[in-house]
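Subject: sequence -> structure tokens, single chain

Hey, anyone have a minute? Need the predicted structure for the following. Not urgent.
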Amino acid sequence: MIRPAVPQDVPTILRLIRELADYEKALEEVEATEEDLQRALFGPHPKVFAHVAEHEGEVVGFALWFENFSTWKGTHGIYLEDLYVRPQARGHGYGKALLTELARIAVERGYRRVEWSVLDWNEPAIGFYKSLGALPQDEWTVYRLTGEALRELGRR
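Reply:
Had a minute. Here:
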């Protein structure tokens, strides 16, 4: 079952985020707290959203996303920040069901794309995304401003 996340899901979502970060060899980079997620997902003006996949009442996966905008398309889209299904639940269609729900939301709202990033070494994920018809955007390189560089630029 796929459903929108509720406030009671926050501790589980944070555990899943940590599992994903551990898989991506970046667990030490996770700074998010339950309070951060509670505020972002369920505060007075949420800008980020989550759906969870349940199996027999247990959350086994999640998709965390937000709206973006394409000047070229002239419409909003969905940016999938994280998609994760616990290893023991993989192969049962939960990842596909989560992405299907995001595609349904995008189509219903008139959005023209759903996009995300994937680590170049994550062959299982790349194969899964390609099997759904997703295409890599090899001509684009992601840049990130963070830490001291962000603070320095922000002080100018």
